[in-house]
Amino acid sequence: MSKKGKASKASGKLGILLPGMGAVATTVIAGVYAVNKGLSSPIGSLTQMGRIRVGKRTKDDQPLIKDLVPVHNIKKVVFGGWDVYDDNVYEAAVNAEVLEPSLLKKLKPQLSKIKPMKAVFDKKYANRLEGKHIKKGKNKMVLAKALMKDIENFKKENKCDRLVMVWCGSTEIYIEESAVHKNIKSFEKGLENSHDDIPPSMIYAYAAIKMGIPYANGAPNLSCDVPALIQLAKETQTPIMGKDFKTGQTLMKTILAPGLKARALGIEGWFSTNILGNRDGEVLDDPANFKTKEVSKLGVLEQILEPEINPELYADLYHKVRINYYPPRGDAKEGWDNIDIRGWLNYPMQIKIDFLCRDSILAAPIVLDLALFLDLAKRAGMGGIQEWLGFYLKSPQAHKGVKPIHDIFKQQIKLENTLRHIAGETLLDHLGLDYDK
Q: What separation, in Å, do the N-terminal and C-terminal C-alpha atoms of the chain show?
């Protein structure tokens, strides 16, 4: 344990493994290298730029988060991962067309050295994807063991002290929890039998958790959010978290909806549509894959607004979400929202939002923060579901019987108080009853 709190020192080298080395993963990797070279700033990353209040209000003590808790230094990280295409990270980043070519050229020597390992992939879970850089095996257990071998080799070759894994791959077809996910025994039997309800993302999650490597899921896939893998995470004392990076339109919802609810304003309808042209947009153009994303997006408003206890305001809320693949837009996603609200004496009003965002630019700092915070949790002895990291996700994973929180301001309080706990600082309740808080 460190002298300052409950986590051991962030010594040595941290390996960050990224299944799916497309637009998001390459933007993270290139971004970290750019920051380390002093070419740009890590805007959007709490672990690098975020501050947190500690101690008495009268002291106005707001250190950087990375100075309060022992977050691993990004100058001492190495990246690796898997992909269905064999392009190195420089080539993949150029193809993704997220970052300027002039920036990528400055990073080419480093980026070109990172080559993806062969991926665990099955086209039936993402029909719009093609690729031949794929592992072969007689069953899914063999594939899981092949991933574990990859991980062992990566750690040894790169002289890493610790590893974390963050899924940056595509959204898979919609799968519901079933008997194969009930416990470790049924799950491992399902791997041996190549059960259809165990998609590739779940195989990666199993491999990581089995080896005690913290795992986060950035897509709406079930992945680690099933009883068997939650049980395994407890047994191996491995921090886990999912699902689905909270980037564009859903980020806006979790900011705006709490404000409307706080002022007791009614909402009649919330219509959301998106256009994007990256690989994610192409995959989501398939109805089977969109279903997975739709479930993730639709649950946000219901949890925040709680229509069951606020029926006069939200019982009749009509919520619709659409995603449209539009190749010309590339990674520059656009989200339109029309919100019909009601005010005093039921008088109608409207809010319009047109968020012209960049999908991977918003996701990249989330990947970095999740990797570094999960590593911190591991060093603090915090195994299992990390509810405090729901701040970053559309469909946060929560303990059984607990409703996930979607209100970003409540999520922020939970995240900051967890960091204070790790640092050995007093938790803040914001009551302000005296000047000693």
A: 26
